Automatic annotation (TrEMBL):
Keywords: Membrane, Transmembrane, Transmembrane helix. The chain crosses the membrane at residues 12-33, 82-102, 114-139, 151-173, 179-202, 246-272, 284-305, 437-457. This is Transmembrane protein 180. InterPro entries: MFS_trans_sf, TMEM180. It comes from Capitella teleta (Polychaete worm). Pfam families: MFS_2. The keyword rRNA-binding does not apply.
Length: 475
């Protein structure tokens, strides 16, 4: 009972969406490339075509949903918690789409490619709708930096729990060897996620969705203060130097995080053979990749309050560069690879967890600059996504293209033939070039990305909000 009283109710409700989304998104991002390439045998042409369609849709739907949530008067758009509540069931359904094949995929077929295209667009649409509402809640629950850091802490605890979904799916399915068990596991993950988001939808209140009259919608004067079409509002936001610096830095971060999520499993399965580590240890390692960053953020929130997110994010770029050089000079031994990827995941994802603080400050500055009575929270997050979301397609497109130039598609076909009929396969595949390019990509991507991010982030000037006087104190 004492623990319940100690918890902050609004923060718990906010973090419930983080828990549900983390449970599903960790599994989706870690497995969808692996499942469609290695199990559904989707061709490279269909894979790249799906990613191009996804890139376009991914970029367009974020500012569109952002504009709708900030300007449409229907409660399911205007009230953030209701957007979560009504969007949650479809979000859960979209998560389940990739894991249940629509036909026989023992041989490459167009249907696998179409399912990939549909799954990516459907999932991203609902992911965007629900998470845009939650991100807006982050900015609107409180303007005080200490309150926002508390939301980060609660959210990271929830994400810590949710990230364990990768460990359980990998452990129960024996690294996808038993796909039917994998399907049962993701179904239960979807049910738990639905419960979490429904709870959030009923209880995540902000100062903007309640008023003395009980009417959550904007008054006529407030609507006029946010006047302007989607293009005018977008230009007003993107013309600010701080917004530009952040979104281009974030584009590189999304590329890097997506690269790690999509290809760590593929690279480690290739460079760390089964004989080097046990299956259970591999499951623990893959699970730790998602859990460890949340632990670091939870333990490090006090440093965010004292140093500020700007300096901490800047430090992570230096660490990123050093890790790339470290791996290059030490070489691809199994335990070095495990250590490298664990540190790289912690560094990249823990920094990523602080980005909502920067976006919230950009929202506050935009509201102050244009004297808005209601912040364009969803619009700012939508513009950020417009620039950054294409990186979620470019990273897997780049990875698959490069790996296939060095024989990854032939290697997959050889492995599939071994599983189907080991006696019929007499020749072996030379994978030395493939393994070399995997290693060099692992080294070079963090160095290149970290260097560019360090340069771009220097233009960001909102650096001391952790020292500012409280602008709003929660009642």
């Amino acid at each position: 009972m004492a623990v319940v009283k100690w918890l902050h109710p609004v923060s718990v409700a906010y973090a419930s969406t983080s828990l549900g989304a983390s449970l599903m998104n960790s599994v989706f991002m870690f497995y969808y490339v692996k499942v469609f390439l290695n199990r559904y045998h989707v061709s490279e042409s269909w894979f790249q075509a799906s990613q191009i369609v996804f890139l376009i849709w991914n970029a367009l739907n974020d500012p569109l949903f952002g504009y709708m949530q900030d300007n449409f008067k229907h409660p399911c758009f205007k009230i953030r918690r209701l957007s979560i509540l009504y969007g949650a069931p479809l979000f859960v359904i979209s998560f389940l789409v990739p894991w249940f094949p629509w036909g026989d995929y023992s041989q490459p077929t167009w249907l696998a490619g179409f399912q990939l295209m549909f799954a990516l667009c459907f999932y991203d649409a609902l992911f965007t709708f629900v998470l845009l509402a939650q991100c807006s809640l982050f900015a609107e629950i409180s303007h005080h930096q200490a309150d926002r850091i508390r939301l980060v802490r609660y959210s990271q605890v929830a994400s810590f729990v949710g990230s364990s979904s990768v460990f359980f799916t990998n452990y129960f399915s024996a690294n996808l060897s038993d796909f039917s068990i994998f399907q049962v596991t993701v179904f239960f993950i979807a049910l738990i996620s639905l419960v979490c988001m429904v709870y959030s939808g009923f209880n995540s209140h902000s100062e903007y969705d309640s008023s003395p009259s009980g009417n959550p919608l904007l008054s006529e004067s407030e609507s006029k203060s946010n006047s302007g079409n989607i293009w005018q509002q977008g230009l007003q936001i993107i013309s600010q130097v701080n917004a530009l610096s952040f979104v281009f830095m974030n584009f590189l971060q999304v590329f890097h995080v997506t690269w790690l999520a999509n290809f760590t499993g593929i690279i480690c399965d290739s460079l760390i053979p089964d004989g080097e580590i046990s299956s259970s240890l591999r499951s623990v390692f893959y699970g730790a990749l998602f859990v460890a960053p949340q632990v670091v953020v939870i333990l490090g929130t006090s440093f965010v309050g004292s140093l500020g997110y700007y300096r901490i994010v800047n430090y992570t770029f230096g660490v990123k560069i050093l890790l790339g050089f470290f791996l290059f000079f030490i070489g691809p031994t199994p335990w070095i690879m495990i250590t490298f990827f664990l540190l790289e995941w912690v560094n990249a994802n823990s920094a990523f967890s602080l980005f909502n603080l920067a976006l919230s400050d950009i929202i506050d500055k935009d509201k102050e600059l244009y004297k808005r009575r209601h912040p364009l929270s969803s619009m700012v997050f939508g513009i950020n996504a417009l620039i950054t979301k294409p990186a979620q397609s470019l990273a897997p497109m780049f990875g698959v293209f490069v790996l296939n130039q060095f024989g990854y598609q032939q290697f997959k076909a050889h492995q599939a033939a071994l599983v189907k009929d080991p006696l019929s396969v007499t020749n072996s595949v030379d994978v030395r070039d493939l393994h070399s390019v995997m290693f060099y990509l692992s080294c070079s991507i963090p160095v290149a990305v970290g260097t560019l991010q360090y340069i771009i982030w220097r233009f960001y000037t909102i650096r001391s909000t952790h020292l500012s006087i409280t602008k709003y104190v929660e009642s």
